[in-house]
Amino acid sequence: MAPVRRGKEVEKRRENTVFNSSFMIKEQLDAQSVSVKDAYGDGRHVSIDVVSSAFEGQTAVNRQRMVYKAIWEELQSTVHAVDQMTTRTPAEAAAQNS
């Protein structure tokens, strides 16, 4: 019976991590688009894609810093690593989708 409970705990942690991270990024960066995916199904490794006008004029490193700052609380508790991060401005996203 313990494996079932642990499975439910992992699923709950995964859902909370994805929701909390998405919410914080969207709120703090006024993002037009945010995608946070659980990379391995454990809620501890995530992949992030963000489109935000807040990235205008920022270097790639500064963009990543902005995202890390938005999810700092998750990084201190639940998230172990961000495996992949894509940060784009709306213009960059539109050009990529063309």
TrEMBL record:
GO annotation, biological process: iron-sulfur cluster assembly
Gene3D superfamilies cross-referenced by the UniProt entry: BolA-like
GO CC term (a single one): chloroplast
Top-rank lineage group of the source organism: Eukaryota
InterPro entries the record matches: BolA, BolA-like_sf
SUPFAM superfamilies in the record: BolA-like
Record family assignment: Belongs to the BolA/IbaG family.
PANTHER family referenced in this protein's UniProt entry, alphabetically: PROTEIN BOLA4, CHLOROPLASTIC_MITOCHONDRIAL, PTHR46230
Name listed for the protein in its UniProt record: Protein BOLA4
